[in-house]
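Because discrete structure vocabularies remain unfamiliar, it helps to consider an illustrative case, giving the amino acid sequence and backbone structure tokens:
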Amino acid sequence: MSRSAGRRHMAGTGACDYCGLPLAGGAVVDEPTGSLGAPRFCCLGCRFAASITASSGADGEARWMMTRLGLAIFFTMNVMVFTMLLWSQQEGAAADPTAGSRVFYDLARHACLLFTGPVLLLLGGPLVDDTLADLRRGRIGISLLLLAGVAAAFGQSAWATWQGNGHVYFEVACMVLLAVTLGRWLEASGKLRTTSALRDLQKLLPDRVRLVTADGEAEVPLAEVRPGSLVRLLPGEHVPTDGRIVAGCGAIDERTVTGESVPVVKGPGDRLHSGTLDLDGELLVEVTAAPGAGTLERLIDAVTAAAAGGSRQQRLAERIAAWFLPLVLVVAAGSCAVHWWREGMAAGVLAGLAVVVVSCPCALGLATPLALWAAIGSAARRQVLVRDGDAFERLGSARSWCFDKTGTLTTGCRLTDVLLLPAAAAAGIRDDDDLLAVAGALARGSTHVHAQAIVDEAEARGLAAVATLEVRTVPGRGIEGRLASDGATVQLGSVHWIERLCGEAGIDRARAVPAGEAHSALAIDGRVIGCLWYAETLRPESKATVAALLARGVRPLILSGDRPERVARIADEIGIEWEAPLLPEGKLERIKALAGEGRGVVMVGDGINDAPSLAAADAGVALGCGADVSRWSADICLLRDDLSDLPWLADLAARTGRTIRWNLLWAFGYNAGLVPLAAAGWVHPALAALAMLASSLFIVTSSLRLADGGGERAAPSVGATADVPRPLAAPVLEPAGAAGAHR
């Protein structure tokens, strides 16, 4: 089964066909607008880079591109040598206008003409193509002005060489072409590097699959597979799209999905995520998601959409760039006209060309998106999914961080005790095992740690699951459904919720509850039949994470729906403020109140009851183990399920914000300083080209410092993704009363 190195998915989302970055309004296309299948590029640099890698692949053609640039540099150096000889000879000819001096002068000019021709042929093609594309769309762009300036400088010099009289400017044409090409190639390469994580993920999807039908087995393109199709997967192959195992058993490497380094053994009935790796088993898989709609593709969609949405600073830069180019055109035309009128055509052309070359609209356009993409790519390599660029930017400056407790600061909950109440016998519940079988059937669809503790204990005892119907979540209170055997209504949830439903009080007093220990109740047909107790453990990294955030000047705070004594025990252990008990509505109000203080609020959670708070916060962060609704309500998802990523993420977001601001300051300052000097005729076009190259180099290198993540730890693979949607259930929490707080 071959593996794809293409960009079939990203290209279909309005992205550049070379680097994968989102297309802006000024996208470069190879054909007139409306042509089907025409490549689209975000800038001339990507169009140039794509033109040299299109025929025989990136490796071979990249070497040919470097050969072209190397040859162009060689010829340009020869032009500069003869140009310096011309400058020195001009002074000598003025003092000694002999025939020999004139002959040498003519030979040097012809040598410049000879060496300039190859430079035009090697580097001028993409500029011509881009100009023609602009003209076909009825638009005048910077490429047209660059081409006009280069052509004017070369034409003026060629005419002077032919006539044997006048100044030559071959070095201007060569330096402008060389610097523009190098600058835009540098920009395109920088953008390509920022999207390397996504391209690595795309390579995990195979091009072809083994389709199993009644007529036998055949290898077909992945695009021909539909939900319900059967495909065969061999050891060492990646899962092409989401599916369910029909036959076979094997160890699956899910590092691209969860970051889990230990392979997961799966068999019939288990789900597979696209992009994961079958290590050792031959599997027959029923496809459950169409190609392009699988787990891996959803990750790429989410990250691409986040970068395409940009940030507030990017949108500001784009609005400014929209009028910057017309302003440059006006300044260049005015400078050309004034200098032409005062000093002649050559001076006018050089002044106008200097303005066009020295202006750096690319730097202005790249200042924000390149830094944002570098940071998002760095986060993806650490398996942190950034879905909203604005929220990521706000996270770096937020000073209030709110945490859910259960499943976020704590992990690993075990069932410690089960108590049968007198009503259990009337409901047909004879012992603890019967109670756990019913409770486990309700809890099986939940991701909350209390529900998982019930399921784990039921499985450890080897209890058969009781069939249930119409199981649904009651957010912040519990789970309810019906028994398939007799239609009896069953509720599992917080003690206070069960008390209100059943009209019984004091059931939580049936046994003394240790301080800080959680418990819930089970009811059948309005009768409370038992209580369950759990012990909660703190995540190993919780203390260090909170300490690191405190060191950053952040105010961490627990917002929990659990009982105050249980929240206080966890909060005291890690040294954090807390407020409890809070229902989802109470958490939402507290988030809004903190946001009203103007400090910026980050909410970190994992349960379905956190979804409103995650959406309302300035930045919502969900753990990878959380319910799907929580994950996709969040702006950022920690797919590795590791809180120690939070300080790193906060630092990355802060550095990204600083880089963007510095890039914008440079872009504005550079253009504000050099464009007027060029318009005044004080900047030679060759020096303008070098300045433009230096500006692009500064922006690219400044942004790419974010690509390494600031010393990120090694990750087993790039990227991760959301789980396939599954039934959700609420955590078993206490209801809100008069909220307690500790500061």
In short: The chain has a mean pLDDT of 75. The first strand starts at residue 28 and ends at 29. The longest helix spans residues 58-95.
